[in-house]
Amino acid sequence: MKSRLFNISPELYEEISEATPIIQLEISSALANWALDQVSFTVTAPCTEQKANEILAKLDAEYFKLESLKEAGKATEQEVVEAFSKARAIHSLVFSLNKEPIEAAYEAIIATGNILGAQIIVRNIKA
Description:
Layout: H1 4-8, H2 10-17, H3 21-38, H4 49-71, H5 77-97, H6 101-112, H7 115-126
């Protein structure tokens, strides 16, 4: 079964899959950092896998809370989208730290809504 990234960008999936393991790690780190920057979320260095997972749990909880509040008319769509994007960006970092570049790329794209930006980063690293 192909990954979620393949479903939204087969070309990017192939570009990352064909890279060497070291380049894949560089790509996943760059994409995670780019996604965090795009959603204006800062993580204090050094960020361990455990710390990233703790942040992810908090951000996911905040997203689900805001989604419920939106349904009750007490939160805006913008607040929900921002919370979702931050959670997906930190999830990209989690996947990067877990050495899962394909999933890190997928989450970075979902966080930013920007496939082209991700492609540019990947191609610049592979150049």
